[in-house]
Amino acid sequence: MNMWMFELKKMWRRKQFLILALIAVACVTVIFLRNFWAQDEILGKVFQSMAPHSQSVYKIGKQFRNEMIHRSEDKAFMDAYDNARKMSTEFGKWQEAMRNKEWNHVPEAEMAFLQTVLKHIEWGGDYDGYPEDGLYQSFEKNKILLEHSLPYEDDLYSISTPNFMKIVFAFIVSIPALGIFVLLLGDQMVMEKENNTIRTLSTQPITKWRLLFGKFMGQLSAIVFALLVIFLACFAIPFFFGGQMGSFSYPQMIHLEDGFDFMPIDRYLFLHVLLFLGAASFLFSLVLLFSTVLKDRLSVLFFTLLALFGGVLLTNQFAALQSIINPFYYLGFQELIEQPNRLGNSLLIIIPYLYALLIVVISATLQKIKHTAEKGKKDVLPFKKGAISKTANRLFLVSAFEWRKYKREGVVKRFTVIILLLIVGGYAFIVFSTNQLREQYIPGMNASISFYKEMILGFEQIIEGSEALLEELEKKGTTPTSSEESLKEVAQSEVDGLGDAVSRYKNDVERRQKELAAYEQGDWKTVHESWIEEILLWWKDPNYMDNAPTERIGGGLSDFLFMASVQEKEWMIEHDLAAVHNNQSLAYTWSIYDKFISPLEQSKWNHNTRKVDKTGLFYVYTFFTTYSYFILAGLLIFLLGAGMTSEKGSKRTLTFLQTQPLTKSMIFLGKTGVSILLTASITLLSILFMVLIGTVSDRFGDWKFPILYYDLPSVADSANYTGFLAEEGGFHFIDMGRFLLETGALFLAGIVFLIAISLVVSLFFNNAMSVLLTTLIVAVGGYVVSTSSLLSSVVQWSPFTYLNAGKIANGETAVVLANESISTMSGLMALLVGTLIFICIGILYSRSRWMKMV
C-alpha cells in the first residue's frame, strides 16, 4: 500500500492526473460537439436506411392495385389489400415523425408500420425491406422502447447521456486509447533506471515484488481515474451543452447462436469497462516486463506498442489465435460484448487480469536492482583511443562531444531502426490495402453488372405488367372509374419512365463489361476511357444525379472536381499509365471546391477518393499526403529536440559542462548543429528507404503520374493561360516527381525549423515531454494563425505557413489564401530564415543572465 501511495504522489506531482483529465475532457467535448453539429445528418442517414422500405411498400401496393381489378370480390384479398394500404399510411406516418424529429413518437409510428408488415407476412406475402432477422429485431427493439417509454436515438450521433457514453467509449476507451496511455504512463520505471533514481529505492527495505506491484497499481489507478473523468464528463458536458439525460435501460442488441437478444446499455458499458481494464492490466504488465529487461524509454514504448498493435493484428488475421487463452483476444471489446457466444462465459473476463498478475511476478523475478556497475563490464574506452585534438575551434569540440554522446548512448541508432521498422509496417499496410482494392475490383465489377442486370429484368417485368394492364383497360370498353384512371396513369408513367431506365442500364452493363475485359488484359487506355465516360455521365446527365454544387442534402461535388477527374484520366492515357484505385467505385479525384454538409462527410469523401498504390514513389506520395509525416516529425522532436533539457533534471550534466572553458551559447550552438545534422540525415534516410522498399517490392513508380495543381485566378484569367478552367477556378497537372522533390525539400526544411523551435523551448523547461508538447502547440498555433484569411496578405513571410508541405507544392494554400507569393521557393527561404532567427534567439537567451542552468 505504501508503494502504491508513493507512486500516486509521484504522478500527482508530475501533473499526470491533470494531463489525463484535460485530455479526457477535451476528447469527450469534441465528440459531443461532433454529435451536436451532426444532428441534421441523422435525417439523411435515417431516410437512406428507409429507402428499401419505400421500395418494398411501393412494390406491394402496386401488386395489390394490379390484382384488385380482378379480385375485388375476394374478401381475404380485400383484407390484405386494406392492410397494404394501411402499411403505406403507417409508413408515411413513420417518415413524418422522422422528418419532424419527433423522436418520442418514432417508436410508436415504427411499431404500427411493423405490425402491418408482420400481418402481410402472416397472410402469405413477402417483404424484402429488412435483411434476414431485421424485421423481428426492429419489432423487439421498438417493443422495449415502448415498454419503457423511450424515444428513438441514433446509434452514431446521439446526444443523450447513456448512448453518448457508448459512443465515447467506442472512441476513447479503445485500443488506440491504450496506446496513448502507454505513451503517457509507460516510461515511469525505465525513466528511473535512466536517471539512476531507482537506486534510492534499492536502499530501502522494499522487496522487488512490492516495488513492481506498487508501480503497476499506480498506473492502473491513473487509468481508473481517467475512466472516472470520462464518465463524469459524459454527464456534465451534455448537461451544459443542451444534451439529454436519456435512460440506462436503452436496449442494445446482441447476437446469439440461435438468434438475438437485447441487453440494457448500463450492462453493456459495465462489460466494456471490465474488458478495457483487463486489457490495460495485461498491457501495463508488459510495460513492466520490458522496463525490466530494456534500458531506455524509446525501446520500452516501441516494443510495448508493437506488442499491442501486432498482437491485435495477428489475432484478427488468424482464426487459430482467436481463443480464450489468448489475452489479445480480449481486446475486441465490442465483438465480445455483442457476440457473447465468442466468450462463452462472462467469468472468462478475468483471464487478462490473471495474465497481468503472472507477468508482474515474472518481472519481479527478473528485476535486479544494482548498487554498482555490472561485474565484468568493460570500461568505455576514450574516444579515438585517447588521441588529443589539436584544433582550437571550440564549436567543433562541442559538436564532436555531442556526437560522441549520441553515438555511445546508442539512442539514435535504435531510434533509426524503429523508424525503419515503422516504414516497413506502413508499407505492409499499403501493400495489403492495394492488393485488397485490386482483388475487390473484379468481383465488385461483376456484382455491379449483376445488379444492373437484375434491375433491368425487374424493370422489364414491371413494364410488361403495366403494358398488359393498359391493354386490359383499353379492351374493357366501358368508361373507366377514377380508380382505373389512376391505375392507367401510373402504368403509363412506368412504361415511359422505366423504358428510359432500362435503355440506360443496358448501356451501363455493356460499358462495364468492356471495362472489365480491358482491366483483365491490362488495356489501361480502355479502362481510363470507360472511367471518363462514367464521370461524364455523373457530371452531365441529369438522370444520374443532381449535380448542382450546393443544392443536394449531402452537399455538392464541384464542376472543378468533375473536370479535373476527366483531365486526370486523359493525362493517364497520354502517358500510358496503369490504373490506380481508391475506395470509391468511380475513380474521382478530390478538390478544395467540394462542399458537404459537415466536415465529417467531407473527410469521408477525401479519404474514399484518396488513391492507393505500392510503388516506391507512390509510397512517398502517400507519406506526404496522409499526415503520416506528423509521426516522423514528432519522433524526431522527441529524440533530437530536447536540447538543454537533456542536460538538466536529476542528472544535471549541464553543471559539469559549466566547469569547462565553454560559454552557454557555445554549448547551445553545438547541440543545435548536431541535432540539425542528425535530423536531416534521418529524414533523408527515411525517404530513400521508402523509395527503396517500394521499388524492391513492386517497382520504382511513375515519375509522370499526374498531381493536381491549383492555379491562382490571376493566372487562370490571363490571355495566354494553357491550363483547364472550370467554374470555380483553373488548374493543371504536374509530374509526381516534381511534386515529391518540392514537397520533400519543404518537409526537410520544416523539420529543421521545428527542431530549432524545440531547442529554444528546451532552454525554458526541464522536462522533455513539456518541450515536445510546447513545440507542437507553437507549431500548430502558428500554422492556424498563418493560414487564417485575416492575415492572408502577409502570411508568405511566416515560416509556419509552409509546414503542410503538400499543400504548398500543389498550389492549394496559395489559392485558398489568395496570395500568389506563396510558393515552394518562398517557403524554403521563409523556413531557412525562421530557423536562423530561432537559433539566434537561443544564442542570445543562453548568453543572458535569465537562463536557468538546472
From TrEMBL:
One of its GO terms (molecular function) is ABC-type transporter activity. The keyword Membrane applies. Keywords: Membrane, Transmembrane, Transmembrane helix. It comes from the Bacteria. Coiled coil: none annotated. One of its GO terms (cellular component) is plasma membrane. The chain crosses the membrane at residues 167-186, 220-241, 269-290, 302-325, 345-366, 411-432, 618-642, 674-696, 745-765, 772-795, 825-845. PANTHER family: INTEGRAL MEMBRANE PROTEIN-RELATED (PTHR37305), MEMBRANE PROTEIN (PTHR37305:SF1). This is ABC-type transport system involved in multi-copper enzyme maturation permease subunit. The keyword Transmembrane helix applies. Pfam families: ABC2_membrane_2.
